[in-house]
Amino acid sequence: MKKSISIILLVFVLILTAACGRLDTPKNNETATPDGQINNGEATSGPDENMEETPAVSEEDRVRIVKERADKALELIKAYDMDGLSEMVHPEKGVRFTPYGYVDLKNDLVFTKEEVAKLGTDTKKYVWGSYDGTGDPIGLTFADYYKQFIYDVDFVNAEKTSVNERLGKGNSIDNSAEVYKDAYVVEYHFSGFDTKYEGMDWKSLRLVLSEYDGTWYIVGIIHDQWTI
Fold it and tell me: What's the rounded mean pLDDT across residues 35-63?
């Protein structure tokens, strides 16, 4: 009798175990996830699927941002605020000063942002290149160079402005696009001042900006005018 009862109990346990196994097994194409949830085969969202992507900046917005940065730099230049301007100088490339339209990589002077901050009171004479027509060296302090080859006219109130479009056209070659790749050139231009010169007394100032770590910095200051 006891043996029969034991057999009956054993059979009951086996039936109960089999039934529980069927309940825990995912059906059809269902799979069990590590946290115990059942996935019925539908795709689940990945960890980054619902994260918002940073919208790309349009060319129109980029041009607007660059122009605003250049305008701010020009205001600092007009105010002769070299300390303030230094904060807008490229932290790695510095800024190159070009007295005429052609960027001369051999003779144009490049200053770091720290050096630019001190230029306003610097009395040292530098050779900035050569004078057009004579070829004589441009040996000037920064203050004198500023008066002749940076802010010689009121560029803040320029007659015309442009971004990546040359306005002042003379005999000098404009190689800024080749020298400053992936940069933007903002030009401030006067077509002339005295009618008797028929436009040959035009003036331009070009500020070259390059992006670094999401911010646009000044890498070049190009003064241009009619050359022989």
Answer: 63
